[in-house]
Design goal:
By secondary structure, the protein is mainly α. The chain is 74% helix and 1% strand. It contains 22 helices and two strands. Strands 1-2 form a two-stranded antiparallel sheet. Helix 2 runs antiparallel to helix 9. It starts with 14 loop residues before the first helix and ends in a 6-residue tail after the last helix.
Length: 471
């Protein structure tokens, strides 16, 4: 394996530097780029402009996060008003989740192929339309229409994460990217929390005048209008980017290459290892959250109300800790070291939950911190190991693998609980994290031997050598 270095051109690049990079120079007025450059190539000193960019990046997936779990917040009323059983209710989430195992990959390719601006608006619009159809199906009491809406909503909803990640890498690649990922995660959790706490009062006020599934449908209709914020943010991003281009009046270097779906096979070994770390770590987080309430009741004899509070600790902690963890990784560097520490923290948390009778508040708090660090440190590595032209495809692939893994593990965990018990579930989660830690170590070794330890550079190293890629 040979070392190579491909990086974004610095802001003060000379014409001689640009010739060496073997890229095509185009005037900004002719650009609709599929390539994601550091924002400094657009607008080096427009801090206010970039703050607005950050705000809209955080809002883009807001509609998806706010509406995705609306059925779960009203699970009892959905089942009662529509007179359906648990399996029929669960199908609403199956229609949302499983298609994205494949759609995220192709959606990422579409973003790379046709550009982030038009596809960003498109996917936000699809999310809004899907939620509208779901609300209409609920209002009419028509299950097939509800499931159709969930399917369409899922097509756009999961891809909004990819759109957000690409925009973040495009504008904040370098010393700020980890903090931005942490902040976006925090906003996402706030949106989910607001939905969980607001939808019940909305339903209660509507159902007085519109009882049954009609009131339920109107509640989901009101929720759907939050998705308009996502559409407006995607539109705002287009105007802000074009304004930055016109303000800077600077030529931008574009790679002369077309994106093909076969380019997935050309992604580096490090990217595949990052995907494995991602899926094995998240498989020990989200499936555990799904069964944690019963786990607390069985192992610790905790009241369901208290159990819900404990279970929400991961999201509550991540809301606060994620931006702080991201800022810390940006200031210190050593991204891979933070990833390894987060895995060790998750291992210790599951060991406490599965092998001791210490209050689960400790273990869940540790999981919350570990999850926050992993989410900020790992996802920001992707722009460092893949070409700019396939960045969305790489994020889509990562999201697809994560979706497939967590969906499969949910089924496996259910089978283990039904046939063996909760103790073996903790052994299973411990095994997932062991694979995660081993893969992270392999990534660390390969990165050190063949790429100068690029992913684990300190902040000082990055300042000295720049934030270019090692492909």
């Amino acid at each position: 394996m040979e070392k190579s270095e491909v990086g974004s051109m610095p802001v003060d690049a000379t014409s001689e530097d640009l010739e060496k990079s073997q890229v095509i120079l185009l005037q900004v007025d002719d650009i609709e780029s599929n390539v994601y450059h550091n924002p400094m190539s657009y607008c080096q000193k427009c801090l206010t402009h970039r703050y607005f960019i950050l705000i809209f990046i955080c809002i883009i997936p807001l509609g998806g996060y706010y509406c995705a779990d609306s059925p779960s917040a009203l699970q009892d009323r959905v089942m009662a008003d529509l007179n359906i059983d648990t399996s029929t209710y669960s199908a609403m989430y199956a229609w949302y989740t499983w298609p994205n195992v494949f759609l995220c990959l192709f959606g990422g390719y579409i973003i790379d192929r046709f550009g982030i601006r038009v596809t960003g608006i498109g996917f936000c619009t699809v999310t809004f339309i899907g939620q509208l159809i779901f609300a209409l199906g609920t209002f009419l009491g028509t299950l097939w229409l509800m499931n159709t809406g969930r399917f369409i909503f899922g097509i756009g909803g999961e891809l909004l994460d990819v759109v957000q990640s690409v925009y973040a890498a495009r504008w904040f690649s370098g010393k700020e990217l980890n903090m931005v990922f942490g902040l976006t995660l925090s906003v996402a959790r706030i949106a989910s929390t607001i939905n969980m706490n607001s939808i019940r009062p909305i339903y209660d006020s509507i159902v007085v005048a519109f009882p049954g599934f009609r009131g339920l449908g109107l509640t989901f209709l009101i929720n759907s209008f939050v998705s308009i914020l996502s559409v407006l943010s995607a539109v705002a991003m287009v105007f802000l980017e074009r304004r930055a281009e016109q303000t800077k009046k600077k030529r931008i270097a574009l790679h002369n290459e077309k994106v093909r779906i076969s380019d997935v096979g050309k992604l580096s070994v490090r990217h595949w290892l990052i995907c494995i770390v991602c899926v094995t770590f998240y498989c020990a987080i989200f499936p555990f959250i799904a069964i944690a309430l019963k786990f607390f009741e069985t192992r610790f004899h905790i009241d369901p109300t208290v159990g819900n509070s404990i279970n929400s600790l991961i999201y509550i902690i991540s809301t606060v800790v994620s931006p702080i963890a991201g800022l810390l990784v940006d200031k210190v560097g050593r991204g891979l070291l933070f990833v390894l520490c987060s895995i060790v923290g998750a291992l210790a948390a599951h060991a406490l939950l599965g092998c001791t009778l210490l209050t689960p508040y400790i273990g869940m708090s540790m999981l919350g911190v570990a999850y926050s660090i992993m989410a900020t440190a790992l996802w920001s590595m992707v722009p460092l190991v893949v070409p700019d032209s396939v960045l969305a495809t790489a994020y889509g692939l990562m999201k697809s693998i994560q979706s497939a893994g967590t969906a499969s593990v949910n089924i496996i965990v259910g089978l283990i609980i039904d046939n063996i018990g909760y103790t073996m579930v903790e052994v299973f989660f411990f095994g997932c994290l062991s694979v995660c830690f081993t893969t992270a170590l392999v990534l660390f070794v390969i990165d050190h031997l063949y790429y100068d330890g690029h992913l684990n550079w300190s902040a000082k190293d990055r300042k000295q050598h720049g934030t270019g890629k090692r492909l």
